[in-house]
Structures
1.
Amino acid sequence: MIAASINVVFNNLPRASSAVRSGLEQVVGETTRAVTTFAQGYAPIDTGELHDSIGGQSSGLSGQAVAGTDHAIHQEFGTRYQAGTPFMRPGAEAARPGLETAVRSLLGRLA
């Protein structure tokens, strides 16, 4: 028969949880800014209205990058008359590696 006992000397879980959340909120903010910047770089520029309408905001663990013009969806996906010129989806894909790296780094520091 094997018997074992565990004594908890330090309970760092509440502090670790707070550190993870705070770190993830920062990562979400940085990634939202990156998506916005990449999308602006990929956006076709005619009058500059589409480029200038691209913005982002983050709050907590949620971030959103948006293009605020009526014709943004037609540029992104195209119409039956013209092919699309994607800019938001490539912007999100370009920011993905940075997000993954930042999350791995954060969790690695806390391990």
2.
Amino acid sequence: MKEKVVRVAEQKNVLLEHLYHKPLINPDELYNELMEYKKMVEPYVANVSLFLHEALKEGKTILLEGTTGIYERPGSWNLSDGYIFLYPGRIWCNRCRNPAI
């Protein structure tokens, strides 16, 4: 991971120095900061597949939740633009008379 942080910092430092004229990123400081974040989130990271498999073996109930569709508005976010709802197996467009199936 350290090598990747150094590589990314080198790439970003070119932009920071020549395009934005901002202070450069110190790869060592960035790596240390990332390791602190790692310590913070580590207790919340798990093998979800194994966790769910064990729960099923124990006869526990699993509630799965998620969105049923995606709302997209092509182009700019001007209210006069069209918008599209994408649902599994169907598309609905505000400029269409009937939903496409």
3.
Amino acid sequence: MVLVDYERGRLGPLAGLPHTAGVLTDLDRPGTQRAAVLLETEVHRRERIPAAHGAKDVSCLPPQVVPPHLVVAVDEFATWSVSTPRSRRRWCASPRRGAA
């Protein structure tokens, strides 16, 4: 799970949850941009998994090969999307391409 916390810091307390990979904030815009690139890379990796196993999509994969769910939660989406338009384009394209 990746948390994007812009403006108010409400998601900060969730940083310690076991499945939280990181919390991105408006205080670290370069970090947010790096995370956008990493998310795009992860989506590309996940797109290759079915092909590598001769499957149409992830729903056709054997259970031991299915990648875990990837959750991205964004607080203050409007603020984040205006302040990081390039990241927004990358992140908003990922769910469309990453769906089964």
